[in-house]
Amino acid sequence: MSAELLFRLSALNTAYAAAIDSDRLEVWPDFFVEDCLYKVTTAANHADGLAAGVIYADSRGMLMDRIAALRKANIYEPQAYRHLIGMPSILGHDAAGIHCETPFFVARIMRDGATTLFATGRYLDCLRDDGALRFVERIVVCDSSRFDTLLAIPL
User: CB under 8 Å to 61, separation ≥6 — which residues?
Assistant: First the structure.
């Protein structure tokens, strides 16, 4: 795997986080291929091979629906995230795509200015590279087994 690929993966993660952190959620589904998987789960559930996730979407259409619901239907306290994303580790490359793991830290900023550690964990990704890197699969494996009920915005 090349340094160029590592740079492109880092740039993708930076753009991904910037879209979420700057409340440009409508562009978030564009980081994924049409038939994708996005799941937020715990480290324990992932280790046990449990398929269910706190958030689960198996297509870009479902991701778009999630954002539409956040904007129009869901009621939750206004908040923002700030992602800190580590360097990706490239795990391999096969017919399914490029496989990598990337650590993350997400702080949540509430309307009153209170900032708290919201989530830490790792992204387990499979990506397709057809000129632009896109997620085929992004499994968000959170270190904690507890989830705040305000998990509304994608991680």
Answer: 34
CA distance 147 to 150: 8
**Helix, strand, coil percentages in the chain from 3-state DSSP, rounded to 5:** 30, 45, 30
| Torsional sign, CA 143, 145, 150, 155 | positive
pLDDT digits (tens, 9 = 90+) for 37-52: 999 999 999 998 887 7
What's the CA gap between 41 and 45, in Å, rounded?
A: 7
Distance, C-alpha 142 to centroid of its chain: 11
Average pLDDT for the chain: 93
| CATH class entry, domain 3-142 | alpha beta
Give the residue-averaged pLDDT of 127-136.
96
Shortest CA distance to 6 belongs to which of 119, 86, 95?
A: 86
pLDDT of residue 152: 81
> For residue 18, what are its two tokens?
């910037």
* Amino acid 52: pLDDT: 79
Nearest Cα residue to 63 out of 25, 96, 100, 101: 25
pTM above 0.85, yes or no: yes
